[in-house]
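Dear Dr. L.,

I hope this message finds you well. Following up on our conversation about the binding site, I have prepared a predicted three-dimensional model of the protein together with adenosine-5'-triphosphate. For your records, I am including the exact sequence and ligand specification that went into the calculation, followed by the structure tokens. Please feel free to forward this to your student if that is useful.
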Amino acid sequence: MPGATLMNRNIYMSPAPIPMTNSQQKTLLFFGKIGYNKLIIYVDLSERGFKEMAALDIGIDLGTASVLVYIKGKGVVLKEPSVVAIDKNTKKVKAIGEDARLMLGRTPANIVAVRPLKQGVISDYQVTEKMMKYFVQKAVGHRLLRKPRIAVCVPSGVTEVEKKAVEDAAYQVGARETLIIEEPIAAAIGAGIDISKPCGNMIVDIGGGTTDIAVISLGSAVESASLKVAGDDFNDAIVKYMRKNHSLSIGERTAEDVKIKIGTCFRRPEVDKMEVKGRHIVKGLPTSIEVTSEEMEEALEDSTNSIVEAIHSVLERTPPELSADIADRGIVLTGGGSLLRGLEDLITDRTGITCMTAEDPMTAVAIGTGKYVEFISTFRSSIE
Ligand SMILES: Nc1ncnc2c1ncn2[C@@H]1O[C@H](COP(=O)(O)OP(=O)(O)OP(=O)(O)O)[C@@H](O)[C@H]1O
Ligand SMILES: [Mg+2]
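The resulting structure of the complex is given below.
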């Protein structure tokens, strides 16, 4: 449409009346004028316009710890743990998501609760596909009239073969078109960064299994690193610390609790305390021990240090112009792992660059994935 900008699906905006062909005159309706500049709004009611209007765009954040589904116009409609419970004898899926998580560590011998995506790698394709299908159906809530466009965000570091497998799984779920997007790009879009500008932005996404660090400019990653140290390793570090220093054996869920309540990686003026329950490894009896946030700082030191070191090495490889942009704009954190207390301060202290967490770090990737579908379809329509 010469002179007009596509605003959304089948709505166009133009500063002046659009010169129309005969067929366009029948289908392109004048809608009104808006704004100070009196921009003219048209609605495209041709077959293509209708198709666009009825299209369903879905973004899926396929994470190690949780799966989020974003639907255009509705936002994030589903957030469930990426856990599947399987009957070992029959190989049948017994439960998916939150129901399966509750079974973790508590299942009878024949039922195993598995995480199909471990440390950012797809360890079981078939189960991943079943999980995706279940979540999409649950999120959409009714039978689909039109096949959706589905964008899936995969942990960076997955191989081409794995990407292809996710793409196939999305088609199995019923997608008309599939897009695979890497986590740092989705995280940046979700954190509200305009990635289309030639300007350097550093994004650090700390998830459950992986931390992705990337310098993004003009829509793609210029420098990046991905390390298998993230939120779940903080839990492991707490489990190890309790065993070594207090002879207390604790489970993964207790460690997560401790991390969220008193975990920190930077010295704070006040000291928090918490009673931690577990099994004494010598006596073998249930025991409760008080731990402090200062101890947690010690427990988490190695894991958080390796994240800071990785950020350092990405900064060292970053071209100077982009470095200057990052120094001005700061480092943006996303992902659930970034909620660990003291991380912003630690990174700011060690790099000398201001570090801030995105507004809603846990949903940033899902929102970014969903928005990417819109971005791509608008982009395509505008060059058609
Ligand atoms: N308040 C909190 N404080 C510290 N950590 C938290 C908090 N809330 C959640 N987490 C941690 O966030 C992690 C999950 O984050 P997220 O949902 O972003 O991961 P993911 O996207 O599934 O993983 P990945 O991106 O590695 O595939 C878990 O390790 C969880 O313990
Ligand atoms: Mg993630």
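In brief: Residues 63-66, 120, 155, 207-210, 230-232, 256, 259-260, 335-337, 339-340, 362 surround adenosine-5'-triphosphate (ligand 1) (CB under 6 Å).

With kind regards,
A. P.
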